[in-house]
Amino acid sequence: MNIMNPIVSDPARETFDTRSLLAHAQQQAEDRKYEDFMIIDVDAHHYETDSYRDIWEYIEDPVMRDQFKFTKGATMMQRSTGGYQEMAGRITRYAHRRTEQAPGAVHRDIGLTRKWMDSMGVDVACIFPTPMLGLGLNPVVEVEVQYARAYNKWLTEKILSQDKRLVSMLYLPMNDPEAALKMVEEFSGCRGVIGFLITTVRYKGLYDNAYMKLYRALEERGLPLAFHAATNWGDQSMHITNRFIATHALGFSWFNIVHMTNWVVNGIPERFPGLKSIWIESGLAWIPFLMQRLDNEYMMRSSEAPTLKRLPSDYMREMFYTTQPMEMVNNQTMLQETFKMINAETQLLYSSDYPHWDMDLPSTIYDLPFLNLQQKKNILGENARKLFKLDHYISDEKQARLAARGKA
Amino acid sequence: MAEIFVCPDSEMKDGEVRIVRQGRTEVGVYRHKGAYFAYRNHCVHQGGPACEGIVKGKVVDLFAEDKTFLGQTYDHDDPHIVCPWHGWEYKLLTGECAPDPKIRLKKHEIVQRDGGVYVVV
Ligand code: FES
User: Fold this and answer.
1) A184 membership: H or E segment, kind and range
2) Which of B3, B46, B50, B83 qualifies as a FRET site for A346, CA 20 to 30 Å off?
3) Average model confidence (pLDDT) for chain A?
4) Which residue(s) pair with A2 in the sheet?
5) CB count, 10 Å around CB of A99?
6) Does the pLDDT of residue A3 top 60, yes or no?
């Protein structure tokens, strides 16, 4: 036997660093040669809470600004989403995030985001906030409007304008349809704004006539509308679940299921055929379920959805979906069938959801045995690049790997 | 086969872990109740560093005779290695994935001699 001299470390004594935590992700990126193609992550997050004080300065209403400052942000927390994503310390990046060193030259969020992007081989990431996913539940409409505008202004000025690798679809305060429309008018065209976002934990039907001007404005501008799911433990049906696994597994699908159903049976895709929609963070298994369920009912009750000219599933197949959290269970036949049913080759967009607990690496797509290389590249980046009309871009780290290969 | 030196026998306390790296080989070495266990630092889920997370006792639901729910506790005789990426749990004593024993971390032999702890790779 040989005796070797290894590096021996004690994780308990090491300072937290995303690059170390994701060293295996980087290994995957190198082994799979991600430098050969562009990877776009369509749903990633930052913690806007870490920049609360800066964001509050952008709240226009001076009285509300004071409320935010003196309640330390609790003004926006008059709602219930709830949960313990960090699993009592098991997902270590939650507890250690605040202690991490970020490169000093750029905003901390940019520095931290670039770290995980480079580890995973992601070239461009669409970032979303985190606690704001529940802002639609706030009973005070002005709070949603004022905070959304403050966040959007802060994000475009301090983050998106500073790094061409970061883009976003901006939060729409849907409890005030006129304010949502103004948001589109004010922010479309800002650097890095590639669409707009409806968080789907909310209780106003998105078929309301008051939203039609908004949908028209987005359609005219060619900007996609994204629907980001979350859960609400205070929802009447979620209220009877007693473990986070239950409200999370159900809620993150449910809130997109209900809005998608309304979207289709009210004929919004027929009324705005040029408006592209993206359904985010509900996994994929719900889509075949809903396609079958709606098609079956539609054949019996088409009189209740008379605007439709085709089956509900035909409309759903033309929409876009993000991958995460993809159901990677021991039944790959179902997954393959799901990919077929949603035209994954053109409609599916890779998303990591990093740094949240159920994040997916690019290898979740790259390693699927039933996809060919072109299909993998489409899902990991090309579909999103076309949808958002982004330039082709390969990160500096990946360029360096390419160059090193050229020399080798 | 090769042996990699981990540490002197006296160095690791119960409940501690060391990550041993030699080239692309990464092994987590655990000490539990005086015994050593070693597993490849590679989670079966998405390839995360399974041995760089925390160790927690298995969580157990407590029921009364009549099957009413009483609460939860930890079984510290069944410690779980928790992968820090998404929380997959593996039994420290066997390497089996807690919810599905067909899935397991790759086990490595430990050799103790001359006051040193070695892992076989
Ligand atoms: S990679 Fe280990 S839990 Fe996912």
Assistant:
1) helix A177-187
2) B46
3) 94
4) B2
5) 9
6) no
A11 within some domain: no
The secondary structure element, H or E, covering residue A248 is helix A244-265
Q: Is B120 helix (H, G, I), strand (E, B) or coil?
A: strand
Residue ranges making up the domain that contains A129: 36-407
pTM for this predicted structure:
0.96
Q: State residue A12's pLDDT score.
A: 80
In the predicted model, is pLDDT for residue A72 greater than 90? no
Number of domains, chain A: 1
Of A92, A328, A358, Cβ closest to residue B53: A92
Q: What is the Å distance from ligand 1's center to B49 Cα?
A: 8
The answer on pLDDT for A8 being more than 60 is yes
Radius of gyration of the CA atoms of chain B, in A: 16
Is the CB of A3 less than 8 angstroms away from the CB of B1? Answer: no
Which of A2, A4, A21, A327 has the highest number of chain B CBs within 10 A, making it the mutation to test binding with B?
A4
Cβ separation A9–B19 shorter than 8 A? yes
Is any atom of ligand 1 closer than 6 Å to the C-beta of B50? yes
Neighbours of B16 (CB within 10 A): 16
C-alpha A346/C-alpha A373 separation (Å) is 14
Instruction: Choose among A357, A344, A333, A347: nearest CA to A384.
Output: A347
pLDDT of the residue at A125: 98
Residue A74's pLDDT is what?
A: 75
Find the CATH number of the domain harbouring A235: 3.20.20.140
Q: Would residue A12 count as lying in a domain? A: no
User: Which range among A32-46, A74-88, A189-203, B85-99 shows the weakest confidence by mean pLDDT?
Assistant: A74-88
Span A165-189, average pLDDT: 98
Kindly report the nearest CA distance between residue B94 and chain A, in angstroms: 20
A100 domain residue, yes or no? yes
Instruction: Tell me if the domain spanning B3-120 has CATH number 1.10.8.640.
Output: no
Distance CA B3, CA A306 (A): 73
A277, A284, A319 from A269: Cα distances, Å: 9, 20, 9
pLDDT at res. A4: 61
B47 vs A24: CB contact, 8 Å cut-off?
A: yes
Nearest to B95 by CA among B46, B27, B22: B27
Please indicate, yes or no, if residue A162 is contained in any of the structural domains. yes
Distance of alpha carbon A77 from alpha carbon A95, whole angstroms = 21
**How many residues belong to chain B?**
121
Closest-CA distance of chain B to residue A408, Å: 20
Across the interface, which of B4, B56, B86 has its CB nearest the CB of A4? B4
